[in-house]
Automatic annotation (TrEMBL):
Gene: rlmN
A Pfam family matched in the record: RlmN_N
Keyword annotations from UniProtKB, A to Z: 4Fe-4S, Cytoplasm, Disulfide bond, Iron, Iron-sulfur, Metal-binding, Methyltransferase, rRNA processing, S-adenosyl-L-methionine, Transferase, tRNA processing
Stretch list, region Disordered: 1-21
Name this polypeptide is given: Probable dual-specificity RNA methyltransferase RlmN
Radical SAM core domain sequence ranges: 120-346
Amino acid sequence: MTSLPVLPPTQTAVPGDDADARPRKVHLLNVTDEGLKDWLAERGYPAFRGKQIRRWLFSGRAESFETMSDLPAKLRSELAESFDIFQASEAHVSTSRDGTEKILVRLADGGEVECVLLRDGDRRSICVSSQVGCAMGCVFCASGLDGVDRNLTRGEILEQMLRLQHRLPAEERLSHIVMMGMGEPLANLPGVLAALDVARNPDGLGISPRRITISTVGLPPAIDKLAASGVPYNLAVSLHAPNDELRSQLVPVNQKIGIEPVLAAADRYFASSGRRLTFEYVLLGGVNDSEACAHELTRVLRGRTVMMNVIPYNPVEGLPYRTPSKESISRFRQILEASGVNVMFRQRKGDEIDAACGQLRRNRGSIGEKSPAT
Ligand SMILES: C[S@@+](CC[C@H](N)C(=O)[O-])C[C@H]1O[C@@H](n2cnc3c(N)ncnc32)[C@H](O)[C@@H]1O
Ligand code: SF4
């Protein structure tokens, strides 16, 4: 087959992996529009066939080339010989009483990631992973407990989005995307931006960047690169502490960066994108939920136009952290609100389905089988 511009490299070899078991076809969701156009041209097909194929993938929710009924039969069989639409499988699906659905996706090389569909009024939001594992090692988070294996490709990120879209009835559309699943999106900026380009394209999922949020632990050079992309995505910075001493304990990568450079990069992002910033603060009982922390946080936020998203901790089996009491959550909230900070206390959705990010993989996936924490 001719070489195709594939973004970025597809499957990586896994030691001990059976090479014959890995897919030999190209993941179509990794192929750029140009790549598909060239492939079609080499076989004598006009460029508009590429548009038709894209429409089938993103609006038509096609899972096989066979169903692409307005394509010539010969093209359908040539496509099926060269490409896979999906290369992963669904290792586990959980549905909670509030309609939240969480999928444990097993990738072609055996790696596992999680993605979630949340129903809230008219909103159909999805939370998507960017890496297998995470290198940042936040002490309370299940996703980073075993480090990072690799970045996801553009196609693997898009496949999560499409798998979640396919769970909606035909008359419903995805409305919001949050890059808040497993992994640090800004450590995989090329893969994430390539996938989001397709997600916001009217010929893709057609979701406005104003409805797309990238959540980051706070990597200043990558925040600047994101700003330089010129697309006004919402940025959410995971703060979790009002000072370096505590943040460095909870978010080890802070030891090398420090809060001030993170805040300065967030301010630059706000200045260049015009998008309101969100700071996330996971409230850990007895750790960062004191009145002193709340007062110090109000001083850090003074003069900044931000939304403070406070998330009561979702306990992770094997980790020594707990959800704060109702009293301490409401005290924390009162202090922030009294100082004029915009605060949102995120409702926990899908609590009974391993809701903490990375938990489904530990409890139901292959990593759980080798993990002492489960
Ligand atoms: C899983 S991270 C992924 C995005 C990015 N790596 C980050 O840290 O912002 C998304 C958010 O979930 C939060 N989080 C992780 N584990 C959690 C838990 N057990 N309970 C509540 N929030 C959690 C993180 O602190 C972060 O704000
Ligand atoms: S909170 Fe985010 S950055 Fe920290 S370990 Fe989890 S996924 Fe990684």
